[in-house]
Every structure is written in C-alpha cells, then in structure tokens.
C-alpha cells in the first residue's frame, strides 16, 4: 500500500468547504484555510476566506478540495524478535505526482517519502536493500553512528550495483529523528525521491499519543526540473509528498511531530503557531525552544503542540536561500492544521538543561568552506572531493573542529559517524548544550564544534546542500585506532 | 548535476507579470497571465469579472501599462497598445512564444551579436544575416524586451511582443567611436549623502556607492599613508615646531588634492625625494619632480587628461577624493596584463569620443558585466573582465624595476630585471582557488538582497529604465573588504593557529603552526610593508614563564635598537624603563621555507631565501636609565644579537605595531631591501626582495618555542596579528592604528 492509499485511509473527511457560487452566503464550515469562527472577509462570497471564489479554501481557484497530509507508511518489521528490526527496502523508479504533474522519480518500496523505519535504542537494525534502479546506489543513515562499513558511502567502499541486494546491519545507540538516503549520485537520487525517516525511540522519553513524521521536500515549478530549485525562492514545498495539504488532528492527545528537511538545497523557516521544539536530530533538547529555527537541508526538528485548541492554523515557512538571506516572498503555506476543540495534552519531557561544554579556545582542525556562485565550484580547505587530504585523529580523543565559511553562501555542515557539540557560533556559545550532526554555517560565520572521536572510520564531512557537496565541498575525517 | 539553465526569480517578483499585459495582444483578445503562483491573484480578478465586476478593473493591473521604454533612447520602441482591459473577463493562458531579432550595426547585418531577452541569462548569437531567435520567458518580470549588443557597440533593445506572422524585431546598433578621449571629465560617483541627480552614480546605485565609499578603493588617493610615503611627509605633524622636533623641514609645497602652497612637514624620505635627485633635501620635491614612481596609475587613476605617468599630487577633485571610483573602473574597456599597471596601460581606459549628445557633453559609455543594460544614461556595453581576477590584476600585480636612480638590481638573483612587489593575482592564479573562488568571491561577495544594480528590489520597476531583476547573487557588493576593513571579517578567517606542546624535565616545548586557511592568496599579501606576526608565551596559571629557546619574531619586524655581540650591551641611547632587551643566538642556519616564486620553486636555496635562524636565549627588562647607561632586572645572557624593544602584551587591544623583534614567535613578510641594506622599505626604494616567507594558500609554517615552566600543566598562548606597516615607519610618520589581531589561541 503506497502513501496515497494510506492517505485515503487516514483522513476520514476533508475539512474544506465546498465550492460556493458567486453571491452565495459564506460557508458555515471551516474551510481549512481561514478561521472557522469568522465569516469570509475576502469579499468573494464563497465563504472560504481565500478570495478566489471557488470555495475550496486553497486559494488556487481550481475548485478542488485540498489534499490531506498523509503519513508515510511504516516499514514492516520482518523479524519478530523484540530487539531486532528487520526491514526490506527496494529502490526503484517510480512515477511521482507533484502538484499535479507526473514526475519520473525514484522511490523506496514505491513510496516517496519511503517507509518510516521505527525502532528503539539498543535494537539491532537490519535493512535488506535491493537496488532495482538502473544505476548503483547506497543508503546512508543520516545522523546515526553506524560502523563505517554500514555508513553507505563509497569512499573506499563499493555501492550496491543494479539488481544487487545488500544488508545493512548495526545497533542503534542514539535516540532521535534520523533519515536515510543514498550517498551515491546523491544529489540526483535524493532529488528524485529516495529518502525516508528513521525514528529511534528512547523508552525513557515520554510516550506520546501521536508520533508523526513530516518529510519536507522542495520542487521547482517545473517538477521535472533537476535539483528542484537550488534557492528557497523558487520552490514549492511538499509535506510527505503533498503540497499545501490539510492535516486533521483527531484528538487532544499528546503529539511529537518530527520534521525532516530532505531538500537538496532549500532552507525552511518554519512557523507552526501553538507548538514548541522539544527535540532535534540528536534527540531531546537540553531546553525547549519556542521560536523555531531555520530547518536546513538534512536537519530535523521535533515539535510538540501545547496550546492549540479548536479551529485551524496554517503551518507556514519562509524559504531561505543558501545566501543566508530570507527570501523576499511571503511565507508559503505548507499545510493547514485543523484541531479539535480541546487543548492538546503535553508530555513530561526530561529537558536536561545541560550547559555547553566550555570552548577550550584551541583548535585541532579547521575546515574552511570556499567557493563561489559564479563558478558553482566548492571546496574545503582548497580541496575538492575526491582529491582531498583527510585529517586523521586518534580514537577516543576530543577534537575541536572549527568551520569557517568564506564562500558567501551558507552551508549546512554535516558530519557522518560522529556527533558534534556546538561550542560557539562567531564566538558566542549556545544557550544550552547543543548536539548536532548537521549545523548551518552562515555566511562569514565561524562555528566551533567539540567532537568525541568515538567511532572508528573514515567519515564523510560535507555541506548538505547536495549540489555543493557534488561541486567538491566534501572531505573525510579519519578516526583511527 | 547542475540546475537547469532557466533563470528563476523569487516568486513575488513575478507579480508584475500580472500587472502588465503582454504586449503582443494588440490585435487580438486581451489576455490575463495566469501562471505559477499568479494563479490566485488572477483568479480573484477573473472571479470578480465573472460576478459582474467591471472587467476593465479586474485585472489587478488597472491601466498600469508601461511603454516599455518610452523614456529610453536606447530602445527601439513600438506601439504595443498598452491597454490592459480584458475581453469579457475571459481568462486566457498566454502561450510562450519566440521572436526573431535582426541586428544591424551601422546599418549592416551584424553576425555574432549577443541577443537575449532582457532579464534572462540565456544568450544567443546572431547568424550571418544578423538574426537570432529568442524564446520569450513569460515569467521574467518587467518590460518584455529583447536586447542586442556587441563588444563594439552600446547595448540596445526593442519591445518583444508576440510577433505577427513573419515579423522580425529590428535592433540597430551603432559602433562606439574607437579611442580614448582626454577631453572627457570623469563623472562624480556621488556619496550616500550626496546623490541628488542622475549625474551622480549614487542616485541610482546607492548600495554600491555606500559600499564603495567605505572601501579602500575610495581612499586610494587621499589615504594619508599613501600621501606621506609619496611626498616624504608626515601628515600627523601639523606645526613647524613639531616638525623641527622630529627632525623634519616645514615647508610649502603642493598638498594632497593638488592644493598649492600648503605647508607640510617633510622628513626627507619619500617617493618623490628618492626618485628625483634634483630635489634638494627631500623638501617639496613635487615642485620640480619629473619621476613619480607610477603611484598615481593605480592610486589616482581618475586624473583627467593624459592617463599614466602622472603625479599623485595632480589628483584633485574626484580623482583625489574618490580614488578608484565608479567612472574609472567602468571605463575600463579591456585588460592587458602585459602592459604597465593601472591606467598606464594594463587597464585600458576608453572615454567616449561621441558628443555632445542631447543633454550629455559626451555620449554616455559604461562598461559593465551585464549585456541587458539599455538605459541611455548608461550607454552600456558588456565586458566579462568585470568578474574575472585579471581585472584585479590591473593593479594588484606589480613586477617593478629598480626605480631609485643609481641603484641596480642583482641580475643573478633577479634575471628578469624586475622585483615581485605585488603578486596577489599570481598567488591566487597558482593556488588552489584558481577556478574555484575568484577574487570577487570574497572581496565582492553576492548581494543577496539586491535585485539589480540600480538597487531597486521592487519588481514593479523592472524596466528599461531601472534594469531587470536578476537571479539572487548576481549583484555583487562593492566593498572590497580586506585587512583595512576589520568589519568585513576577512582577517578573522584568514589564518589559523594550532598548538601542540609537551613538557619534559621542566621545559615546555611548543610547536605552533600557522596556516593560511582563508584567502586564495598569500598571507599577508599586497603592499609589502605589511607583515604577519605571531607571538607565543607560556603560563602557569597567570604566571608568565621564561622563554629559554626557540624561534623568534624576526628582526625585520622591528626593534627600537640593536647591538651585536661585540658591542657594549649596557649602553642603549634612548632607552626607557620598561624596555626589554632580548638576546638571540645565531644558529648559523637559515629557515628553509616554501614561499612565493623563487622562494618556493627551488630557485633559491635556504641561504638565498634570506631568513637567518635565530634562537632565543633570554631577555632582561630595563629598570633604570642613566644617560645612555641602563640597568636591567637581570643580567643579560650572552648571545650574538641583542634587540631592544617593548614587552609583548597578550590580551591587550591591538593598535600600532610595536617593536618587539626577538620575542618568542615568528614573523611573515615579503621583505624588500634598499640599496643601503635597510629592510621593510617602501617598494619604490627596493633593490632586492631579501626574503618572502609569507604563507601561500592552504600552506602552513610550524615554529618551535621552549619555556622553563614551574608547573605540571602549563598553557600556551598564541596571538597572530596583521601589521600594515613597520613600527619604525608608523612611528616616524605618526600614523595611527596599523595592527589588527587576527587570531588568539590558548592550549
């Protein structure tokens, strides 16, 4: 069953008011795009408040109801053992439908986003990956500390050839919201739809009534255009494959809403009124955040609804660009959320309140990010992957890594196999301890990380604007015995 | 895989598609443009129309049509109707179309002309018949115009409505009169607070001017440091008495800005004094100088009249106040790297010969990076060099002969007969960033907020007059950030310091690595008076530990005084309490570094690379002064060289370069020497480059330092600073500032 079918099952009723003809009275029902308690003030008389006169509430004038936002299918656990999760994934060509256009893309198990893999800390994860593509592929487990030979990179390793199957297996040691995607021909294969969420639960964390995943991707106006828009300015965003959909909250149960930005290049400045951020890619935050941060390519954040009750709200985002500037266009509506009249329950999150590790003020490694939009060529320390000189550090040592952005384009800096603690951004330490695997380094910014080299391997380190990575902005950090 | 070539715009920029009617509809039904994100707005209008609202007001555009260039003498205007009313409120999807463009130049079909839709990034070249077909992108906001241009003609445009059958759009170009016009007067760039008319660049380009006015380019001629070195003066000394006190001569000459009869303090050393033997005593040499050292060719390129070989003190008005300014750079027609630097030939200036034209004394002529600039005020024609490092090499690359009369170059050492003075361009060209990050990548970064060069981000103004909205990042800042603009942050990211230390038998050995991690050129680069100095100390908690050996800040970086081992080290004329005398031992070796050119390509051996390896022995502080005799806090150890200077103040605010050669640390510079063997001299005096250990891009240098420590867990402090000039030169001229902290590290 693909996600479109699941979407049909999940949403019992569309919230949108139906078409109202010219001059008719405002619809009594909520249109999903406006305030249910107020009459249509748009003046078009259709009652949906969007002013387009078609009454469907989406403002596009097509008279079609807005689609529901589905949840990606959960991956089926093929192993009944309680501490083993076994999943089969097939990467294959697929025809995607993006804002009404058929797109020749790729999918895992016929679904874009691919199935959500759910496991818990301590589980052994086994994933049988079959490559039914016409090209080699791999799977990288973004944010997880896997053994190096399970990391899905082709630096000194081989990809999965077409027609072949490979089993990834490793133990899950971290809780959080992760995702998986190819790390071969990455920009193209991710761009075409190969991605999915991987949720690792920690039994010590609060159990929620609704644990939802929202996989955010961007598409150019011509959905078949490669790279789907390099800049945040010119993209239509989909949430779990649906553009400008409707999410019905069924009850006032507690929620954990996990956002994953899988876009090749697009930044998102999310706004979901009535929520707070409780976790990020590496698990529960040291302290919750009321103001949502920009979600950069490759990164994740988890929200909890805490004071929303009744009516509907729009989840919006201002698309930012790799230039580090908010675009001039107004916020895009990602989806409309319809809530039950009762305020949601909140959970007892164990925010540690941990303070940042003090910056020791010395540096072990400097990564200088260079390149220019005029050349569309990118480098780290003057080297373009694969012609690189990797740094090597001893196992179990604490390393201070300083990333300097000299390229005048922002770069979401991603490190494989290790977790980074943010020590400072332009000399300012974060308010609380911040553990990341992907972190934006803004234009002319210097970000210092503390990294415990506790995972032996040759770890890719790169910008997660995927065209930048393919343009050369990628290197390797070797953790040697 | 790269993104598709189609140019994209922020969606809000496409609003103008809705408010402007396509112009090819004058003989057919009036159309709405309902595409992409415009649909919602379009439907509002359509719905209103369907509900009986007057259709003429339902477009959302009203009567807001433009003539697409009625103000323009640079566009072949056509009557496109311009009526935006609809036919019965009918919504019709406009169909993309192509137009055939025929380009003539001086009445003859022009092959190879560049043709494009204004605002697009897709360009075509005309065929032998002068024709090309341009696909019109309906999503480009603003006037729908096609533009044609050649290197020898100003760009012109024409309205590009959907064509009738067989219709061809004609664009007539006129060849720019060849040659330069010495009668032309460079125009006023204006300033952010003086931009009142279109006669000033700042009127339409305020962001660029706001950047530029704070840049070193703006101050290239008026910079008092430049003027002092040129005339041998001290601008900081402003009275005759003070001048006499510093050993100078107070006399009247020509002042900065070509002001006659200005009394200044002449110190006897300067470009004009050094290069003009006829000048007696180095005083007011500008009155009879005939040799000028080519300074103005780059520092004051906007001196009207004859270009090249002018005196810096001829710079007046805009040429003095604004140095390297808009109208100079945008009059550069081409770059010839084989010619002398600056406007002496390398930057080939072309000032318009046609005129008068209308209200213009001379028909405007502007060279710039974009083809689709057809505002007649600009008279624009495109050149690629505006985005290429070669343009910067027009001045930031200088091989110089020996200029001082009677002095000679060491032909065995410099067989080409020239000295590498400024090599920023070739440092980049031979480094890892060639092809990756051109000069503009850091020094003219993208202006993400600018939609076009006219600084009008509102897409409603996209037009012949104001230009078209360009893809984000196309417009570049004009700030030229560097070491003189700490606010740009470039110095902060230029150098990195790595510390590694061990303690053995009470001696801490620190290996300190300085790496050039940021720029695509050497660190430091540019003016050879610059240097980079690294200081090292060891502490036990707050207690500074005694250095007992290791590398030192080289003598070329400056001391107050020095004595060799044969001299009396208790005699230090001019010494003050608190001065530090550092004792060094000669190792007899030389640092074998990898530097620029012959200092790194194997031409020179370690000795020829000119950096003796000194070893720190010890230091004492002056506690009392009696005449020339001084008393120290501790007996000076024996050694080969004693350098008197001042203490290094870690953690202190950096301002003026301090004389602390011999301190634990290291120094990096291109060291020029004059005929007398004096080092770190202004480049007009140079007869040799005695050493050049500046750090090339992504290269590093590791120095070693030893300290006797009194604790088990000492820490090492390192500070890396950038110096604009030597302590002695800055002190003698009274210049303020000059030293900037680049990096501080503690481990």
Quick summary:
The complex is a heterodimer of chains A (481) and B (747). Chain A contains three helices and 30 strands.
Provide structural commentary:
The complex is a heterodimer of chains A (481) and B (747). Chain A is mostly beta strands and 481 residues long. Chain A folds into 3 domains: 17-65, no CATH class; 68-352, Immunoglobulin-like (Sandwich), CATH 2.60.40.420; 365-480, Cupredoxins -  blue copper proteins (Immunoglobulin-like, Sandwich), CATH 2.60.40. Helices cover 4% and strands 39% of the residues of chain A. Chain A is built from 3 helices and 30 strands. Chain A has helices at residues 3-10, 186-191, 466-470; strands at residues 84-98, 101-108, 114-120, 124-131, 140-142, 165-171, 176-181, 196-201, 210-219, 236-239, 245-248, 255-261, 267-271, 275-280, 283-289, 294-295, 300-305, 312-320, 332-338, 365-372, 377-380, 391-394, 398-405, 411-415, 420-425, 435-436, 438-441, 446-452, 457-463, 474-480. In chain A, strands 10-9-12-17-14-15 form a 6-stranded mixed sheet, with no helix packed on it. In chain A, strands 21-20-23-28-25-26 form a 6-stranded mixed sheet. In chain A, strand 20 (365-372) and strand 21 form a beta hairpin. The termini of chain A are far apart. Mean pLDDT of chain A is 83; it is low at 1-49 and 227-233. With 747 residues, chain B is an alpha+beta fold. Helices cover 11% and strands 26% of the residues of chain B. Chain B has 13 helices and 32 strands. In chain B, strands 20, 21, 28, 29, 31 and 32 form a 6-stranded antiparallel sheet that branches. Chain B has a 5-stranded mixed sheet with strand order 1-8-7-4-5, with no helix packed on it. A 5-stranded antiparallel sheet of chain B has the order 23-27-24-25-26, with no helix packed on it. In chain B, a hairpin with a 2-residue loop joins strand 20 (531-540) and strand 21. Chain B is elongated. The two termini of chain B are 43 Å apart. Mean pLDDT of chain B is 87; it is low at 1-74 and 76-88. The chains are: A mainly beta (481), B alpha+beta (747). Chains A and B meet through strand 20, strand 21 and strand 23 of A and helix 2, helix 12, strand 18 and strand 32 of B.
